Amino acid sequence: MADQGYQGIKKIHNNSYTPIKKTKKKPLSSIAKEYNRELAKHRIYVEHVIRCLKIFLMLREPYRNRRRFGLRFNLIAGLYNCGLNLAIA
């Protein structure tokens, strides 16, 4: 699932879902609006997780220690999955 900035991703990944855009000449139908609402309802959970993970500076700024990125990212994800709301700024 992606937002409207990834409109061309369907050509690369068949299992991707993006909202339908409206144009000046062609407004959205009620079916397209409902599709966009349902997609947004599912995407909001992912956006909240990304927001919680960006509390850590490692994901907010360029990370310089390339060798340990995977290990540290897994540790942060593990802390989030355990329900620990640690804010390190």
Textual characterization of the structure:
The chain is mainly alpha-helical and 89 residues long. The chain has one domain. 51% of the residues lie in helices and 0% in strands. The protein is built from 4 helices and no strands. It is elongated. The two termini are 29 Å apart.
What can be said about this structure in brief?
The chain contains 4 helices and no strands. By secondary structure, the chain is mostly helical.
Mean pLDDT over the full residue set: 82
Oligomer: single chain
Q: What is Rg?
A: 17 Å
Tell me the strand percentage band: under 5%
* Main sheet specs: none
Q: Secondary-structure element sequence?
A: HHHH
The number of distinct helices, counting runs of at least 4 residues, comes to 4
Give the termini separation: 29 Å
Helical/strand content category: mainly alpha
Structural domain tally: 1
State the shape: elongated
Helix proportion: 40-55%
